[in-house]
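Record type: ASSEMBLY
Status: queued
Input:
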Amino acid sequence: MEIYVKNIDGVWFGIASEEHRVLATTFGSDENDVIQSLKETLHLTGPMKTSVPSALEEKAFSAMKRIREGKGTPDNVSLCMDRLPTYTQCVLRTVSQIPVGYVSSYGGVAEATGGGARAVGNAMAKNPFAPIVPCHRVVTSSLGLGGYTGGLRVKYDLLKREKRGYTEAKNIQVESGTLKVFPVEFVLGKLEKLLAKRPL
DNA sequence: TGCAAACCATAAC
DNA sequence: GTTATGGTTTGCA
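Status: finished
Output:
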């Protein structure tokens, strides 16, 4: 298994891969934090070897860069979820289908996947593929931000860049059922009122 | 608003 | 098996 890190426009991106399969991805402002995060996600200890990124990693890096810039999710990155619990995989795949410009709620994802809201929150918290699996697009049912492992500020910034001007909620079909999504503007609108009172 | 109880998959014992 | 733990939700004062 190898770990790759790369600084793009001041942001550190990290990838852990093995035999041409992406096992985990993450990003952050500090190189060591990114490496540490990958190791914790994969339950690894000790030093990791790094090497020159192959086409696979380069593709993943550019995907993460695009997402961070709010340009949407390229779906050509193959992620290896084999080791994850079945339900977690289902949740991650479902969340991956939330389009740019829209968000869904923990409860909504739960309904679509036949689980519980808290369980979805758990899956998000442990999402090994941030931000490629867009867990930042999952918020609370009351249009609050919810949580984010990388910090709420980061989640907020990501969502701000994903504004597309949509005005209506809609349902989309996912493998396990129907998922209700609504414009990210709904969340941002409420949030800005809140921020006026109590800054993030 | 704020609080308490119900909820559900996981990980750790 | 059992228990503890969340990036939740909902209902009710």
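Annotation: The mean pLDDT of chain A is 95.
Annotation: The CA atoms of residues 93 and 190 of chain A lie 28 Å apart.
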